[in-house]
Amino acid sequence: METGITCYSRGAILPSVPSQHSTVLVSPRTISPSFSSKSLKSSSLFGESLHIMPRSSLKVSKTKNSSLVTKCEIGDSLEEFLTKATPDKGLIRLMMCMGEALRTISFKVRTASCGGTACVNSFGDEQLAVDMLADKLLFEALTYSHFCKYACSEEVPELQDMGGPVEGGFSVAFDPLDGSSIVDTNFTVGTIFGVWPGDKLTGITGRDQVAAAMGIYGPRTTYVLALKDIPGTHEFILLDEGKWQHVKDTTEIAEGKLFSPGNLRATFDNPEYNKLINYYIREKYTLRYTGGMVPDVNQIIVKEKGIFTNVISPTSKAKLRLLFEVAPLGFLIEKAGGFSSDGKQSILDKVINTLDERTQVAYGSKNEIIRFEETLYGSSRLKAAVPVGAAA
User: Fold this and answer.
1) What is the pLDDT of residues 64-123, one digit of tens each?
2) Local structure of 127: helix, strand or coil
3) What is the pLDDT of residue 385?
């Protein structure tokens, strides 16, 4: 027997971001492993104190057998949705704090001056100033959540102790601003993050994630998230008053002729990839590719069809990081009803051995991933899969 779930209408819990505040940019290398709550409350990065609800105010209704009744609805606020979706108060708080950081990053991206680069990150890539700002905001939000034990980012690829508990806590890996090289052209960019239980970010797989999300900074700002224990991938839009509102669920990625081909230079000396691209062209697929991984993968979830590829070759090595980008996006795609692949297996089954591990990847509908695997390697594990319930 189901019991009702109390919804709490607290209004907009996210503070406005005053444009008059100046921001001092700091190199990611100077980020302290631990931040004090006091410094966060006075942080000019957030404009004012973070107005995330106190931990004691998070309440969940359960059935008699203690299983959570999920009745998430379109129109729910982010807090209402999370409160219905999971009994884990720590995860709720962490996702709320990250939502606050995404909202603030969105404002900074919209108002950033992108006339040039400000520094070089630890991998030697050129980095715009707004990358550094996003990185700092996300580290601060994770500290303020009080439930993050360790965190690392693509810009700061070493474990940072966030001060949270190991038991009941989480470790988070993120790409603060994926697509930063196209910020100055005013293309859509975004943030990617994955959440793992406990205190490990190596020796794990993408399937071990308890949540993953991306923030998309385009004409609209959206927060697209998935939680391990509920079906679907869920989109929230940022309203003018600073509140996240649930606007879309995706539970199936159907077939459709839409392709986003990354790393096309690999077709020069990878004949199988060249063959695949020629198939898309010959079959009159619609090309939709921005050069930003977040918008290109997000369109598969929003349009509920398509294929994204980023393939390697002998002279064009893997650039995408499994921990910071590929595994979290794979979690979102597969929760949305799609599939992911490195050519031979699901991205979510790849063991993350090092923080900087890189891979090729494809995301899309089942038939598109079958075609991807067969074209590149001659066979597909999805075709050979035994249907659920079939005799051994």
Assistant:
1) 333 444 577 899 999 999 999 999 999 999 999 999 999 999 999 988 765 544 444 455
2) strand
3) 55
CA dist 289 and 269 (Å) reads: 21
Return the closest-CA partner of residue 204 out of 348, 61, 308, 359: 348
Beta strands in 327-382 (DSSP E): 339-341, 351-352, 358-359, 361-364
Which amino acid is it at 192? I
If phi > 0 it is left, if psi is from -120 to 50 it is alpha, else beta; for residue 240 that is: alpha
Gap between the Cα atoms of 224 and 197, Å rounded: 20
- Virtual torsion, Cα 8, 9, 15, 16, nearest 10 deg: 150
> 43-52: buried (b, 16+ CB within 10 Å) or exposed (e) per residue?
bebbbeebeb
Burial class (CB within 10 angstroms; exposed 0-12, middle 13-18, buried 19+) of 27: middle
Instruction: Write out the two tokens for 183.
Output: 């910020």
* CA separation for the pair 316, 266 (Å, rounded): 6
Contact (CB, 8 A) for 154 and 144:
no
Contact criterion met (CB below 8 Å) for 360 and 376: no
Question: How far apart are the C-alpha atoms of 220 and 204, rounded to whole Å?
Answer: 34
Closest CA to 64 of 116, 138, 2, 148: 2
Give whole-number Cα distances, 71 to 4, 5, 80, in Å: 9, 8, 10
Q: Is the pLDDT of residue 318 over 80?
A: yes
Q: Which residues contact 78 (CB under 8 A, 6 or more apart)?
A: 95, 96, 99, 223, 236, 243, 244, 245, 246
Tokens representing residue 373 in the block: 């695997």
> Which residues in 93-127 are b (16+ Cβ under 10 Å) and which e?
bbbbbbbbbbbbbbbbbeebebeeeeeebeeeeeb
Distance CA 94, CA 170 (A): 9
Angle, to 10 degrees, between the axis of helix 78-85 and the axis of helix 89-111? 150
Q: How far apart are CA 336 and CA 226, in angstroms?
A: 8
Runs of H (alpha helix) within the chain: 37-41, 78-85, 89-111, 129-145, 271-282, 293-303, 327-335, 366-377, 381-384
The kind and range of the H/E element at 259 are strand 258-262
Rounded to an integer, the average pLDDT of 130-136 is 91
